[in-house]
Design a protein that fits this description.
- This protein is mainly β.
- Helices cover 12% and strands 49% of the residues.
- Strand 3 and strand 4 (51-69) form a beta hairpin.
Length: 140
Amino acid sequence: MPLSDHSQGIWLYDGTSEVEVLIIGDTDAAVSTVYGESSATLALLSSQAPIRIVGKMRGIEGTVTGFIMNALGRDASTDRASLISFLNDSTTARKLKFGSRDIPILIGNVKIDEWSDSEEGYAISFDFWQVGEFELEGSS
């Protein structure tokens, strides 16, 4: 099933196969993003204004929090196993689809908390870093 058919939730998937994980949560609250940068802010003794030195802008970085559940035709155990398989191969780029964004990423710092009734699902979180070619939004 093509991922573009999925309009609900947040999707972590492997762009080369049909392995995918549905993460349920409010899109704005469940995906926290920033544009990464390598920079320093200096406060000189003789100046009131700080000086910013930006060496490199990176892509979108952030954290995803939400739930993998038995919902919307998904099986929580299968999605949990897929997330673990992605974690076991953490140097391979995956895709993250949320809202109108669909970006290639690496994942790390994965946390899976089992509910008291694991038949229902799992609370999850992971950090991500955009990889590959990208353009900052609004730039031309």
